[in-house]
Design brief:
Layout (H helix, E strand, L loop, with lengths): L3 E7 L2 E6 L4 E5 L11 E5 L37 E5 L9 H10 L3 E7 H6 L1 H9 L5 E5 L5 H9 L3 E6 L5 H7 L5 E5 L6 H5 L2 H12 L1 H4 L5 E4 L1 H6 L2 H5 L1 H7 L8 E5 L4 E3 L8 E2 L4 H12 L2
Parallel strand pairs: 4-5, 4-11, 5-6, 6-7, 7-8, 8-9, 9-10
Antiparallel strand pairs: 1-2, 2-3, 11-12, 12-13
């Protein structure tokens, strides 16, 4: 059994996070009722020079950096996970002091980078891992990439991020059988993703759904965001009992999205309805719970 990274109480349940990234929730109740989010998807910048055709954030070289001194950071809870992204989060000039601040608060930071930026800043990312300034590293790949595979095999806390409808089925097969961890993200039909959507994208979505039962056992771990769960009908593939055992809840039940560039928050990064950022996490989270119940 991997070592326990942190354990804490949130509302009526206890969260245990293990060093290999596994999260377990236990409750004596009939449902998990959170007092604050277990995890936050945190955008810290819109700056990125990669110009990915499907980028739903429309990140670019003209993109602004977020203000990492916002008061909401001081209300983050010990033990909660923060998935830091952008844009290219490695480009933010205040990234290192920000990560140190999160570490002092005993927050568990993870970071997501494009494989292009991984290749440019490999040494920096490895130093962040060694210093335990980040725990998990997500590497975004649009197709099979040997460098990303080698990096993931060398670091047990690396997860390859792929987008449904972008990453082809034949490339899942190239990754198969290596003991890799993969996160499949739903295709977001806004930002540049709206213009990139095509019959080819829809066909790749169909093929991935058709071959999902083949993809799942080919990896050490396969996880999904809520959008991908719906697009790929994962519950139908794995069965209700297994799905219910592993499902971490709908957007807003124990998670949320925070954009420090525009100072907004939402149920998820796929939400087009955004609200102005409050100064406390609890104020935002409670407002989101009301939104989710509508």
């Amino acid at each position: 059994m991997p070592r326990i990274l942190t354990r804490y109480r949130n509302g009526n349940y206890v969260v245990t996070l293990y060093a290999d990234g596994t999260k377990a929730k236990e409750t004596m109740g009939d449902a998990f009722i959170a007092s604050f989010p277990d995890s936050i998807d945190l955008k810290i910048t819109d700056y990125c020079v990669n110009n990915c055709s499907m980028c739903h954030e429309r990140s670019s070289a003209a993109g602004r950096h977020g203000v990492l001194s916002h008061p909401i950071i001081d209300t983050f809870h010990s033990g909660m996970e923060v998935a830091i992204g952008g844009g290219n989060p490695l480009s933010h000039p205040d990234l290192l002091p920000f990560l140190k601040r999160l570490k002092e608060r005993r927050v568990i930071p993870n970071i997501t980078v494009n494989v292009i930026d991984l290749k440019k800043d490999t040494a920096l990312i490895e130093e962040l891992i060694r210093a335990r300034l980040v725990y998990g590293v997500g590497v975004s790949c649009h197709a099979f990439d040997e460098f990303a595979v080698d990096f993931a095999l060398a670091h047990t806390n690396v997860v390859l991020h792929v987008i449904n409808g972008v990453f082809p089925v034949e490339d899942y097969r190239k990754l198969a059988g290596k003991g890799l961890k993969v996160l499949i993200l739903g295709y977001k039909e806004f930002g540049r993703g709206r213009e990139y959507l095509s019959s080819a994208v829809r066909e790749r979505m169909r093929e991935t759904r058709e071959h999902l039962s083949e993809i799942l056992p080919a990896f050490k771990v396969v996880s999904f965001d809520n959008l991908a769960l719906t697009q790929l009908a994962v519950k139908e593939v794995i069965g209700t009992e297994r799905f219910d055992e592993m499902y971490m809840g709908a957007d807003g039940e124990a998670s949320m999205y925070v954009d420090l560039v525009r100072e907004e928050y939402a149920l998820s990064s796929a939400s087009e309805e955004r609200m102005p950022l409050e100064n406390t996490l609890e104020a935002c989270f409670q407002a989101l719970r009301g939104t989710a119940r509508r």
